[in-house]
Amino acid sequence: MHLNEDLQIVEPVDENGNPVSPGTRSAKIYLTNLFNRTLPLIRYEITDQVTFLTDEACACGSNLRRIGNIEGRLEDIITYEGGVKVHPVVFDSAFEHYPTVIEYQIRQTERGVAISLLTNGPVAVEQVERDVSEYLEKSGLHNPEVSARIVDRIERTPGVAKLKRFVPLITA
């Protein structure tokens, strides 16, 4: 993917805000827009993990910088006891096989996840549970407990219309 650098400045940085070199996955990016005079964003922090590709020219002829896949937001990574980390892309990968799943919410549990599914057609819930369980196993979580259910709506963050897709385990 190419960045439209005539419209913005994108700075890949590590957890401490230090620049990272091409080929190294950033912990976050700083974004400065160059066109919005009403609400300028100056070094706005976005916690998407991005790998900027080398500075070699692209085969398509564009001189704009290129990035690899956007890895997702750090705050959406689910961490389990023993240091097992599960990246949100695990769930995206599982749900790409279910076109009738319109939206989903993942709630972390002690040993796995509870999934709420908003659908526009039939979904084999048991198969979803098996698929997600398999992806969690591949991520290093042994014998995960996965439950899924179809819901009429998914709760939004109070006062905000935005869906919190990944809800971490609340520990006392």
In words, what does this structure look like?
The structure is a single chain. The protein has 172 residues and is mainly beta. It has helices spanning 89-95, 125-138, and strands at residues 8-13, 28-33, 44-46, 48-52, 67-73, 78-79, 85-86, 101-109, 112-119, 145-150, 166-167. A four-stranded mixed beta sheet has the order 10-9-8-11, covered by helices on one side. A three-stranded antiparallel beta sheet has the order 1-2-3, with no helix packed on it. Strand 9, helix 2 and strand 10 (145-150) form a beta-alpha-beta unit. The protein is globular. It starts with 7 loop residues before the first strand and ends in a 5-residue tail after the last strand.
List keywords for this structure.
172 residues; mainly beta; 2 domains; four-stranded mixed β-sheet; three-stranded antiparallel β-sheet
**Name of the CATH class of the largest domain:** Alpha Beta
CATH topology of the largest domain: GMP Synthetase, Chain A, domain 3
Report the CATH superfamily of the largest domain: ANL, C-terminal domain
Our measurement of the CA-to-CA distance between the termini, rounded to an integer number of angstroms, reads: 43 Å
Q: What order do the helices and strands follow?
A: EEEEEEEHEEHEE
Query: Biggest β-sheet: count, sense, barrel?
Result: 4 strands, mixed
The residue fraction in helices comes out at 10-25%
Task: Please tell me how large the radius of gyration is.
Answer: 19 Å
Q: What would you call the structural class?
A: mainly beta
Low-confidence stretches: none
Secondary-structure arrangement, i.e. CATH architecture of the largest domain: 2-Layer Sandwich
